[in-house]
């Protein structure tokens, strides 16, 4: 069984950074390609190049509770369901596997894609989006393990033509799936009409990551050449701003609040960036020379899990990052919040005008980042009648229950 690393070993990665390790590194059984964090408990999952999925309870003394060999080839992407009772794994062989609350395989779709799956995103309670190396995007209703829509990679019909690199979901003004591609475009899927409604102008660069910012008014993508492309919502043809400031690729993006985000970069660094005005605020972590492969916040936003093309998952304390982000943009946050409030009301009114009553597609919030995660965790803790446990104060006991995840 893989072992947790000693906290002292963290100095080889972080030195004297303001932010440090909240919990020890975890050494996995193989090179980690993706990470998923349980939405309700201190549990994480790793998908590996060997095709295994490892489940860990993280804390001061991390414990591996399961290791499942799901694929003959690599496990490319992982997503927990909103209630944490399902873990969806997507493989290079084009298959999708769901693990149930007992840790057993609940469903397998062996030929979900004809080429290797590159990215997945669980959203709106029961839906799963998957993308592959050919640019095909599929949306699945996981209650029946069947696709409800599929958009084959093609230059026609505004579809993507190369590997799908990232997804983002917005519930308003109407449920929308955003997909970036290495073909240099951003695709927009209207989930109510099941149509690809827009595709950005082709960039002479590759879009690798995507985040929804400014209360849903802006969409930001990270590129292979280290730039941020900034789009205004609804104006998808050409970007309206670009920040070319980073020296290497931007592999992953995680919003902190409406104005700042974290960028996981090809040089192994994680940087806090401010959007409009655009600037590099600080370096949160440096993991050596390997590219950031996965970067996922914990359920309460106080922890960031990272992997960098090796078998080590690093945890960084982000419990004070929201305050740092707010201090980085005094005045901007308040103005943006007021503007976002008006924008959100307008978008909500547009959503109310829709005749579609599919509540499943309207159930997720978007663009609120680590701040929103902390608020949701606090609300969930209050609803469950238990205190909110910060991971920086040590490992927390799991929630009560008889299912696999809660008994870890």
From TrEMBL:
Belongs to the WD repeat WDR55 family. Keywords: Repeat, WD repeat. WD repeats lie at residues 127-150. It comes from the Eukaryota. PROSITE patterns: WD_REPEATS_1, WD_REPEATS_2. It comes from Cafeteria roenbergensis. Residues 349-369, 382-408 are annotated as: Disordered. This is Uncharacterized protein. InterPro entries: WD40/YVTN_repeat-like_dom_sf (IPR015943), WD40_repeat_CS (IPR019775), WD40_repeat_dom_sf (IPR036322), WD40_rpt (IPR001680), WDR55/POC1 (IPR050505). Residues 353-368 have a biased composition (Acidic residues).
